[in-house]
Design goal:
- By secondary structure, the chain is mainly alpha-helical.
- The protein has one domain: Arc Repressor Mutant, subunit A, CATH 1.10.10.10.
- It has four helices and no strands.
- The chain is elongated.
Length: about 100
């Protein structure tokens, strides 16, 4: 009886671990698909929007740093970020439905 319970417990653990592995794989694939959608949408932005988004979000530059680098007023950088995020949402949201 003890061996049967042990085998059942091991079998249960295998299913539980396997289930979590499958969940992790599924989440990883969803993230990869989401990342690909974002990359495609990002590439469709204007050059100015791409530069600002790339600098702020990927290179972690402050608005003031981006303004200095691009020789723009900080308010223009903020406006550009607003419209770039809005455009990204317009490009990505229909694809997620």
């Amino acid at each position: 009886m003890q061996e049967t319970n042990t085998a059942a417990a091991v079998g249960y653990l295998d299913v539980a671990v396997g289930g979590r592995l499958i969940d992790r794989i599924e989440v990883s694939l969803q993230k990869k698909n989401r990342d690909e959608l974002l990359r495609r949408a990002f590439n469709r932005l204007s050059r100015e929007h791409r530069e600002v988004i790339d600098s702020v979000y990927y290179h972690e530059k402050s608005v003031d740093e981006v303004a200095q680098i691009l020789d723009l007023p900080p308010a223009t950088v903020k406006t550009c970020m607003f419209y770039a995020r809005k455009k990204l949402a317009e490009l990505v949201n229909p694809l997620l439905k």
